Amino acid sequence: MSIWARIAGWAALIFGLLYFFVPLGGLFEFSLKARRGVYSLDAYASVFADPQFQQTFGYSVIMALVTIVIGILIVVPTAYWVRLKMPWARPYVEFLTLMPLVIPAIVIVFGYIRLYNTSSWLPLTGSVMGTNILLAFGYTILALPYMYRAVDTGLRTIDVATLTEAAQSLGAGWATILGRVILPNVIPAVLSGAFLTFAIVIGEFTLAALLDRPAFGPYLQRVGANKAYEPFALSVIAFAITWGCLALIQLVSRFSKTAPRKA
Amino acid sequence: MSIWARIAGWAALIFGLLYFFVPLGGLFEFSLKARRGVYSLDAYASVFADPQFQQTFGYSVIMALVTIVIGILIVVPTAYWVRLKMPWARPYVEFLTLMPLVIPAIVIVFGYIRLYNTSSWLPLTGSVMGTNILLAFGYTILALPYMYRAVDTGLRTIDVATLTEAAQSLGAGWATILGRVILPNVIPAVLSGAFLTFAIVIGEFTLAALLDRPAFGPYLQRVGANKAYEPFALSVIAFAITWGCLALIQLVSRFSKTAPRKA
Amino acid sequence: MSFLTLTSIQKSFGPVQVVKDFNMGIEKGEFVSFLGPSGCGKTTILRMIAGFETPSGGTIQIGGTSQENLKPNQRNIGMVFQAYALFPNMNVADNVAFGLKIAGKPKAEIDARVKEMLGLIKLDHLAERYPYQMSGGQQQRVALARALAPKPQVLLLDEPLSALDAKIRVSLREEIRMIQQQLGITTVFVTHDQEEALSISDRIVVMNAGRADQIGTPYEIYNRPSTRFVASFVGTLNLIEAKVVDPATNRITIGDQGITLREPLGAVRAGDTVSLALRPEAGSIAEGAKGDTALSGEVISSNFLGSVIRTRMKVGESVISFDMFNSPGLVPPAVGDVVTLRFTASDLLIIRE
Amino acid sequence: MSFLTLTSIQKSFGPVQVVKDFNMGIEKGEFVSFLGPSGCGKTTILRMIAGFETPSGGTIQIGGTSQENLKPNQRNIGMVFQAYALFPNMNVADNVAFGLKIAGKPKAEIDARVKEMLGLIKLDHLAERYPYQMSGGQQQRVALARALAPKPQVLLLDEPLSALDAKIRVSLREEIRMIQQQLGITTVFVTHDQEEALSISDRIVVMNAGRADQIGTPYEIYNRPSTRFVASFVGTLNLIEAKVVDPATNRITIGDQGITLREPLGAVRAGDTVSLALRPEAGSIAEGAKGDTALSGEVISSNFLGSVIRTRMKVGESVISFDMFNSPGLVPPAVGDVVTLRFTASDLLIIRE
What fold is seen in the domain D4-226? Predict the structure, then answer.
């Protein structure tokens, strides 16, 4: 192996790390500078004291949980059924779940606004609760690719078809198979999809802004436009949350590797 | 198989399809209604005639191409090297490439603004070109997960280690191996990553808006706030572009299945 | 009527007919192997018995009851898969108890039965282990115990040994056969490995392209193959082209050596070509042997394969391989030697397609 | 000095010593097989010769030149991999031409050599095919041609047959051996299949846990295994525990049957236990045989395996298997029969670890 190739490889890796961590480092350092001349947590104190922070963050957490529930209800049975009985449909379903990645969120929102405006058959945008429901479904679309991929990957680690047949030959019906055989073996995958969904919803800006809901993303942007140090503290907090979610995913997937279900 | 389970499976699939296509259908139908009482393409004509549309769209296309080039230069050698010589590093690199999905774009932008502001060591935000560079790198981060995953999937379909060793035993050096053996076999994967990147950059809103660049995403949002039918026409156009990209990916990957490189 | 009866079974996947009019009766307590290359339909028949596939035509009866309207989970069948298919989230005891719990047995009965089953497969000490903590052979034994625990009417084994190492494969097949005989359970075994089928079965069904080419005991299948396919799939075989000299006296020639067959040639004419089969292990070298039970030829290769030495000689247009057991004193024939192979009259079979 | 010389080769991966002080000389034109279970270090030695791994200690010389500072692409070595490793974006001709193009040969020479190579593997007609359009056996033959095209000094074969079907495996190994002898190329072959190694090699190295247990011709390895590991890994083997009665006269007992060995027992005392090895194919049933070349026992099982019938009998505490070629007239011994197995004096080997 050429020494140059080796250096190039390491350089690429280090560059990748710097690419992420230098901006974050700068961000963090600046967020501590609210008090002139010394490092302090003043900006953080100010952020946490802001009632708007608490409100928007709470709102986003609730929306994230709702999104996760909707996502699991849609994705888990679909992914199982596609793997078991409609393997020919897998490329199509994968294609479908890929679409949210490339259909701009704006398009989705405009579609919703048009479809569910106050003069439509289902005037969801006319009420707060209706708009919340719209937002949750929008988030679900955004999170769908990750949720589906996570669950599908989880299903791939077990032999869905054979386990189902083994359970059937032992007399089990569909409810037993799903509840006692399939679900216990994909729980880590479901959790991993849930954490990703959580991180995405917490940081999302476009959907919430366009539907005009008091979510954390727009708040972040508002603070950024009007204050000096707080936005950086907020960014660090948002990053810490998403980082925490990622770490949880890693933990869960590591746990699942040593746990019996890996096999 | 129970008839109920079968129905449930199909219902989930159909629900998934409706989930995407009903909003889009409503959108499309409304965009044709600019002339009272009849369907017409007036809204589309108005959009295409707008010089701002041409400018912002052209700008976004150029940014997309720049982003694709940067992405390929970063991702292809890294992914190859990681697969070949640092398989232990794969989880870490995958983790890294997953981060942009969950670090809100806002955090990235604030980091950049802080790091490269007019009073910093590299005052990129002080000039138009500098801001453009920042934006391109921001887009690269956003597109990184898809590009990396596409290239890595492409590399997975060939036996990188053995092909490299076979070429070495026949006397080939690194340049020959990369250029004549590895690259020709992952071109479809690279293209697929490129198309995804293109679709993402065209529709992106947050980064461009916060860095205040004349991109297509913010234009879309501006039009949406001020006009009646044009935003819907624009949404349909944006959707058509992304859809076209997706169709191209499918074509490329189908082509690659029948082409020799699949094997 | 037999215990397990398959009548006119057919199965098509789209335009492809995988099983073509299959008929068979399997007696209670019998061990029947389905042997054939991949795609011959053997696994499809097994899956139709289990209820995982619905026959396109025909009926399956077990103990006199038609299985037509029974779902897989209503058939009371035990199945062991190539991929073990233990439930990864349950330990050994829970896996074995699964079918009993579904059947709603009382806890005491379940515990007793699990214990009995683990004793049968000699894994009592591993009851608390999880599948991923065990070797493939152990997992497959647990899968066997799990399938047997609810006392099924029929045991179906779908290539259960294919994923295992050679040595474990041999010991586990003997163990399966022993347990099967001990319990007297009707068993259908699917395999593509001829030695496996020969060593374990009461009867063998040799499948070819959706049909049963031959059904018989291992001894019949090996020594009296009824078709060219069976002869070549089961064991190694020399196929020798011979020319008919006189159908009335069963006289033929191989190259320039005349032989009078014991078996009647049937409806052929002088000058016709017939195919004869000779197993490599059937002959032995005997210098000076002549007549209807000997063939001479020039040695073209002689390979040391360990326990046997395989020599090939050319007789007319045919190449005949024959095996000798290796022994320290044996001098294998050299390439170019002319040797005479002696066999018994019944070794030379006529293959009639 | 030999053409390919390995001197005190060692290799560790972290704390694990995979190859321990390996020494061997391979002559020009010799075909040497490395045989052993997975993890024994055989593939690691091959990869060190190729330059893909760097030895932790020792030297490798080819034709008198140390390979220490040569990268894999400077060693002029041909290699064939288990996974074929044809370049999927090139057709057969381009694959074979790859090494020649890298070497900068003129086009006319490349074309001629590619043609010659495709003739050698009898695939001239498939020159335009892509790898994915060919069977595994064909792909592996192309891989062989590709490795041989640049006229390498040494040909390395890394389990080239493991991914293929049983029948193709046999025919391709014969083809490889033929081509190797025709070209007279020095070849190192790695395999875990003992029959493969026995049938194809000039010499075999039996590897065990990073060491060479025995190096010898196939005949020596099979008939005179020097360790218990070699004896049990190569072929099937009965290991019989015997008690020494009188070291001076080489008298031992197996169960209650006394035997005088021909081979001297060496440094043992009366009452010691020694291990004897007997191949299953070495004996034959001979009623009434007595003395130093016969053992009697009760039959505990008799299995029909196709070409052979394997019978097991109990002699004292040991179980002895023996094989008989199947033939239509043969009546296999029944369980419970007492039979006498006769062998020749040289069949009974003393295993001295």
Answer: Rossmann fold (3.40.50)
